[in-house]
Structures are given as structure tokens and as C-alpha cells.
Amino acid sequence: KSETGLSKAFRGVAGGSGAKRASLYIDRALRDLRAVLTREFQSLKGIDNVVDLREAVSEITLMISTQLREAIEDDVTDAYLNGARSAYADSPGLGKQSYNRDEFDLEDIRILQSNGPLGLALGNFEQELNTEMNKVIFEAAALNVAISSMVDQVRGVANTQAWKLGRIARTEMLNVFNEGRFRGYAKAEDTLGDRFKYSLQIINDNRTCGAHQELSGRIPAGGLFLDELIELQQRIGAKYKFTLTGKALLHPNQRTVLVMVR
Predict the structure, then answer these.
(1) In the predicted model, is pLDDT for residue 15 greater than 60?
(2) Cβ atoms of residues 178 and 247 within 8 Å
(3) Are 91 and 260 in contact (CB under 8 A)?
(4) Could you tell me if 257 and 83 are in contact, meaning their C-beta atoms sit under 8 angstroms apart?
């Protein structure tokens, strides 16, 4: 352990940086992280002053941020490539040809990891986590709260903030999957020298926004070419004050899937 209590032997969740990660790795990361946080924060209860506690909390903040960022970035890669492969395989005439990722895919993935709701949440996570945990420490110190009680409060903040980031990541994975499907279909069209038509499967219920209700009624039964589908989303999105992000995201938490019309 370091002098501040963080285990130096800890090399990351689920087997460290070399571990093979499954899709939706963020769920496994959060489960493993909860157990790690319980152990790490328990060790901090031996600290006898606020200065050392803040130093230890800063180390833990960095550890949490690093591990969740790696998990989410892995999930983005998996979701995008799963979408691309599934769309490519869905295209007629390709038989069992395998999908080979290229530099365009990697650039798309880098953009998805850094932009939009997920990129913004990742960018702010470490600072917000550190701010919230220090706020708890300062407020508790002002009230002469015992160190052990401070540690319990800070651990609660860490778990809550990590859960919030995980929730954002999970809701964004469908968008990442759709971006991959656009890429897979586009690559299939290039390979085959042909164009196909597509639609968006949209869940219509009391949670569906007006833009997607209209979009559902405006896509013809025979579908649209990819560029036409993007243009239609842009027009309808602008009407409802949404800006199309990527090729299929009008707003966070939307529930749509890109499909080829047979």
C-alpha cells in the first residue's frame, strides 16, 4: 500500500490492462469496481487527518476514472464493430465474406469515444468526482465528523458518480451500434457497387418524442437511400430543435435501429 492507503498492487478491474473484455464491459467493470472501492475505502479509515485523506481520495479518483474510461472505450469499439459486422453480413450478395475494419472505422470510433453525450460525460467525470468527494470531506470536517464517517460518505459519492457514468454509457451504446451499422451498410454498397434502401425501426409509445413520431410516419415503406435517410432526420430534427449527431442520433436515450428494407 501507499502511505495514503491505496493498494499499489491493484492493476485494474477484470484482470488488468491485458484482460479480454466482453461487450458491455462497463457492467462488469462497475461490479468489480464496487468491491475494490469497498476494500480501498475501508483501508482509509486508519488515516488520522484530512490532508492525507484528500491525497488518498485523489489517487482513488484517478483510478476510478482510468478504469471506467478504459471500459467504456472498449465497449464503444465492440458496439461499433458489432454493428458494422451485422450490417455488412445483412447485405445481399456478400455471402460469408468477413468484415475487415479499416482506418475509417477507427476514426469513427475515436470520434464516438470523445464527442457527444458520452464523450462529454467522460471528459467531465474525473473533475466532477474529485470535486464532489472533496466537498463531502470539507463539509464533514467543518462539523468535526470522524474520519471513518467521512470515508463512508466519500465512498457513497464515488459509487453514485460511477453509476451515473455507467448509465450514460449504456444508453449511448445503441447509438454507437447504429453508427457501426451505417458504416457496415455503406461499405457493403461500395463492395457490391450497388445501393439499397433502409429504414429506422422506432419504438412508438408514450416515451417517444414528437420528432421520432413524425420520423416514423415520414419514412416510406420501401425505405430510403442512406443519404436520403440522413437528410430526412436533419430536416425533422431542425423542426424540433434537435441537431443530428453522427448519422442517426437526434437526442440521447432514443430507441431506434437502422435496418435494410428487403
Answers:
(1) no
(2) yes
(3) yes
(4) no
More confident: 262 or 46: 46
Most confident of 4-8, 17-21, 33-37: 33-37
The share of the chain scoring above pLDDT 90, in percent, equals 44
To which residue does cell 430526412 refer? 232
**Confidence at residue 195, expressed as pLDDT on a 0 to 100 scale:** 94
Contacts 24+ apart (CB under 8 A), 240-246: 240/209, 240/210, 240/211, 240/214, 242/211, 245/115, 245/116, 245/175, 246/112, 246/116, 246/175, 246/178, 246/179, 246/182
Strand 256-260 and strand 198-202: the pairing is antiparallel
Size of the chain in residues? 262
Residue of 219, 200, 217 whose CA lies nearest to 259: 200
pLDDT at 17 over 80: no
> Could you give the CA distance from residue 191 to residue 245 in angstroms, rounded to a whole number?
26
pLDDT of residue 114: 85
Mean pLDDT computed over 23-31: 70
Grid cell locating 51: 490532508
Instruction: For 148-182, give the DSSP string.
Output: HHHHHHHHHHHHHHHHHHHHHHHHHHHHHHHHHHH
Classify the C-alpha dihedral 61-67-71-72 as positive or negative. positive
Enter the C-alpha cell of residue 103: 482506418
Residue 202 phi, psi dihedral angles, 5° rounding: -120, 125
Phi, psi of 125 (to 5 degrees): -60, -50
Cell for 140? 464533514
Q: Are 185 and 196 in contact (CB under 8 A)?
A: yes
Q: Give dist(CA 62, CA 42) in Å, integer.
A: 18
H runs (alpha helix) in the chain: 25-44, 50-90, 103-114, 116-142, 147-192, 210-218, 226-239
